[in-house]
């Protein structure tokens, strides 16, 4: 298993609000290298599967409709200690609780529409990266 990679999405709110460039700048300035990247839109089935772990949560329907509401940018990133360092860079789920200097503090609208995704473990980084990219698309 690759332990120096993580998976991210720039979510529909951040794309819609014109923050793609600024977010990529924060990510690469923090030392992450882009190993795969695509501008795409999730189908309802893809969003349901990606967030299946949250299927029983009250916000699941809202989450799926938000994540399919517009285009996203999906990417695989590489850096030493990628998963933990990227979670630190994006900040708390709720931007009201996110630290200064984090992506969510700067660009998230609220706890649901929170600008970016970051994998929470090496195992999920691998699964999520493969969910979005074929082997040929990963460098
Ligand atoms: P994370 O993205 O910081 O890991 P999770 O708890 O795994 O947060 O939740 C996944 C996503 O579900 C969040 O990023 C957010 O978009 C959405 N979400 C989480 N909690 C809520 C909520 O209370 N209301 C609406 N959406 C939520
Ligand atoms: Mg999570």
The value of Rg in angstroms is: 14 Å
CATH H-level superfamily title: Nucleoside diphosphate kinase-like domain
- Describe the sheet with the most strands: 4 strands, antiparallel
What is the CATH fold-level name?
Alpha-Beta Plaits
Uncertain stretches: none
Give the strand line-up of the largest sheet: 2-3-1-4
Write down the overall mean pLDDT.
Answer: 97
* Number of helical stretches of at least 4 residues: 7
**How much helical structure, as a percent, in the residues?**
25-40%
What is the rounded distance between the termini? 15 Å
Instruction: Give the SSE order as H and E letters.
Output: EHHEHHEHHEH
Principal-axes geometry comes out as globular
What does this structure look like?
Helices cover 40% and strands 17% of the residues. Strands 2-3-1-4 form a four-stranded antiparallel beta sheet. It is globular and about 35 Å long. The longest helix is centred in the last third of the chain and has 11 residues, at 122-132. The chain has 139 residues and is α+β, with helices and mostly antiparallel strands. The structure holds inosine-5'-diphosphate and magnesium ion. Residues 54, 59, 62-63, 93, 111-112, 114, 117, 120 line the site of inosine-5'-diphosphate.
What are the salient characteristics of this protein?
single chain, 139 residues, alpha+beta, Alpha-Beta Plaits, 4-stranded antiparallel sheet, 7 helices, 4 strands, 17% strand, binds inosine-5'-diphosphate, binds magnesium ion
């Amino acid at each position: 298993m690759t332990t120096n990679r993580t998976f991210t999405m720039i979510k529909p709110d951040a794309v819609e609000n014109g923050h793609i460039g600024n977010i990529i700048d924060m990510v690469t300035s923090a030392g992450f290298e882009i190993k795969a990247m695509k501008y795409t839109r999730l189908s309802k089935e893809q969003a349901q599967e990606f967030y299946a772990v949250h299927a029983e949560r009250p916000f699941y329907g809202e989450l799926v409709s938000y994540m399919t509401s517009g285009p996203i940018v999906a990417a695989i990133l590489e850096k030493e200690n990628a998963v933990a360092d990227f979670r630190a860079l994006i900040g708390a789920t709720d931007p009201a609780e996110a630290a200064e200097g984090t992506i969510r503090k700067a660009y998230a609208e609220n706890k649901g529409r929170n600008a970016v995704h970051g994998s929470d473990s090496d195992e999920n980084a691998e699964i999520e990266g493969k969910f979005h990219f074929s082997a040929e698309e990963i460098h």
